[in-house]
Design a protein that fits this description.
The structure is a single chain. The chain has 559 residues and is an alpha/beta fold. The longest helix is centred in the N-terminal third of the chain and has 21 residues, at 132-152. Pathway: One-carbon metabolism; tetrahydrofolate interconversion. Its EC number is 6.3.4.3. This is Formate--tetrahydrofolate ligase.
Length: 559
């Protein structure tokens, strides 16, 4: 048996084309690309603005079952499908998110796909890339610094230190920074107050960059950020501190989508990167809408399982940007379904059709949920060598009983050739006119009712609990004019419930709302449930322990 080549070895051996050639495929003149080396570039705001009024292509969402340690391969399938569509003669563009350094050095790995379905340069995309995340971190922390500076120099806005809601961020997993006291050390260091850090991908600035339509919209949204409250409980905005202009300056280049290529030299936009378990989990609106003007098909992903990423893609991104998805792909693996059926990770290599069928309940729930939004769906079985014919047949039979089709995909090992069948099916669905997209809830419902609708209809929860302080806060925001905003649920990605160990398709569980945060600039209310953390920690043995430079100066250990 031939040795399995790692993702990074495959990426390193890729024959890349100059980025100007990739741009030319899309009709982007070289002068409208800002190159970052030979293999990546930003697309100019001038070119993007000139595409207004052109006809949109078809929008395809790739989502997945709830993630497990067995792996699902959602990004890999997104990239593979983009290549597959190009292979069958369609002009397709992949739109995915940028990678956070936290998971790269923690446990999850990168965000550039895998096997022979990757975007390259893989090392750059998974590390500093074009500096977008650093710009977001800097803009966010500039506002934090200006808050404390304003208070130090007399607090003209009468900010209540007890009600400052703007935390700091960094793009790394570091549990020690979740809760802390800042400004210690005497009079010259300011006024001590409780503070803390979130990971950069959870920043409202990240969400704003991903939802803004242009630089003017970006600056307006930055000004709308609420940093805290005065002693009379009125909100203090970033524009009150005159921070919005400087923040927009720091984000000027980061707003431009990044163009790279797949291993098969097809175009890919990699831009933005909010987590779907604690933010809205989609790549930028500006990248998606630009791609729709340039391609016949745009394949994009939403983070984690469909209960998180797909729900937020539909209820936040599509609602805010006026997008109408034409079809959805739900990625599943035999291994992950067996794990949902109770099989331990070490035993996944053995055939177990009975456990697989039990675990398929998770897949069935996701199929029903995506259809609830009026979007036709197909299931992609991301193939592993340990899969047996009986197990694959069981998944196909289960999906057929749910009125959909499951297609075996071998893109990890074979690239676009291994995913042709899925590409043809996606075209069939997208061209069928079946899509009748509608968000899950209307704008005019009370915020708590929106939370309850997501919990009951998507999570199948029996009850939502929230203490009086949370309910009063939601009511206050409604009185202030924020009641029409959608809700962004922060929940564990591993389960439909708030218990990460409750796999499969649980029903009747309780969703406990611990905290709510108003992201007025981004345009949604974050609802923090269960034990979810907005600053992750590192595992006992983080990936960082196995990442190093070899004797030739190449990076080893990245997934």
């Amino acid at each position: 048996m031939a040795a399995i080549i790692s993702d990074i070895e495959i990426a390193r051996a890729a024959t890349k084309k100059p980025i100007f050639e990739i741009g030319a495929k899309l009709g982007i003149p070289s002068e409208q690309l800002v190159p970052y080396g030979h293999d990546k570039a930003k697309i100019s705001a001038e070119f993007i603005a000139a595409q207004e009024g052109k006809k949109d292509g078809k929008l395809i969402l790739v989502t997945a079952i709830n993630p497990t340690p067995a792996g699902e391969g959602k990004t890999t399938t997104t990239v593979g499908l983009g290549d597959g569509l190009n292979r069958i003669g369609k002009k397709a563009i992949v739109c995915i998110r940028e990678a956070s350094l936290g998971p790269c050095f923690g446990v999850k790995g990168g965000a550039a796909g895998g096997g022979y379905a990757q975007v390259v340069p893989m090392e750059d995309i998974n590390l500093h890339f074009t500096g977008d995340f650093h710009a977001i971190t800097s803009a966010h922390n500039l506002l934090a610094a200006m808050i404390d500076n304003h208070i130090y120099w007399g607090n003209e806005e009468n900010i209540d230190l007890r009600r400052v809601t703007w935390r700091r961020v960094m793009d790394m997993n570091d549990r020690a920074l979740r809760s802390m006291v800042s400004s210690l050390g005497g009079v010259s260091n300011g006024f001590p107050r409780q503070n803390g850090f979130d990971i950069t991908v959870a920043s409202e600035v990240m969400a704003i960059l991903c939802l803004a339509t242009d630089l003017r919209d970006l600056e307006r949204r930055l000004g709308d950020i609420i940093i805290g409250y005065r002693f009379d409980k009125t909100p203090v905005y970033a524009r009150d501190l005159k921070a919005d202009g400087a923040m927009a300056v720091l984000l000027k280049d980061a707003m431009q989508p990044n163009l790279v290529q797949t291993l098969e030299n097809n175009p890919a936009f990699v831009h933005g990167g909010p987590f779907a378990n604690i933010a809205h989990g989609c790549n930028s609106v500006i990248a998606t809408k630009t791609a729709l003007k340039l391609g016949e098909y745009v394949v994009t992903e939403a983070g984690f399982g469909a209960d998180l990423g797909a729900e937020k893609f539909f209820d936040i991104k599509c609602r805010k940007a006026g997008l109408k998805p034409n079809a959805a792909v739900i990625v599943a693996t035999v291994r992950a379904l067996k794990m949902n059926g109770g099989v331990k990770k070490d035993d996944l290599g053995a055939e177990n059709v009975q456990a697989l069928v039990r675990g398929c309940s998770n897949l069935g729930r996701h199929i029903a949920n995506v259809r609830r939004f009026g979007v036709p769906v197909v299931v992609a079985i991301n193939h592993f060598t340990s899969d047996t014919d009986a197990e694959i047949a069981a998944v196909k039979d289960f999906v057929a009983r749910h009125g959909a089709e499951a297609i075996l995909c071998r893109h990890w090992a074979e690239g676009s050739e291994g995913i042709e069948d899925l590409a043809y099916k996606v075209v069939e669905l997208a061209e069928s006119g079946q899509a009748k997209f509608e968000p899950l809830y209307g704008d005019d419902l009370p915020l708590l009712e929106k939370i309850e609708i997501v919990a009951s209809k998507i999570y199948y929860a029996g009850e939502v609990t929230a203490d009086k302080a949370v309910r009063d806060q939601l009511a206050a925001w409604e009185e202030q004019g924020y009641g029409k905003l959608p809700v962004c649920m922060a929940k564990t990605q591993y389960s439909f419930s708030t218990d990460p160990n409750l796999r499969g398709a649980p029903e009747g569980h309780i969703v406990s709302v611990r905290e709510v945060r108003l992201s007025a600039g981004a345009g949604f209310v974050v609802v923090i449930t269960g034990e979810i953390m907005t600053m992750p920690g590192l595992p006992k043995s983080p990936s960082a322990e196995r990442i190093y430079l070899n004797d030739q100066g190449y990076i080893e250990g990245l997934f």
